[in-house]
Amino acid sequence: MNMKDIEKLAVRDVAGGSVISVKAVPGASRDKVVGVLGDCLKVATSAAAEKGRANASIAKTLATALGVSKRDVQIASGMTNPRKEFHIAELSTDEVRRRLGELD
Hints:
Layout: E1 11-14, E2 17-25, E3 32-37, E4 40-44, H1 53-66, E5 73-77, E6 83-89, H2 93-101
Parallel strand pairs: 2-4
Antiparallel strand pairs: 1-2, 2-6, 3-4, 5-6
């Protein structure tokens, strides 16, 4: 899909990896990275926004998209907010942008 506006994504380097801003869209028909919305990565999930199900599903979708293990993607902030931040272990901001830019 060659993601448009990838350079606008709010991604920052932190100890042990990077943190990316995500706009969660729960209750979608399927789990997928939709694209860039403002400075957030828009991620749709079929999981409901209850008891952390959507957060877990988004973390799994991000891990798959970035080619990392599920355990390398953890929610950092925004547990109950549609705008969230996820910590990506071991990947720099440049590597996160590169991998997302290569998504089909």
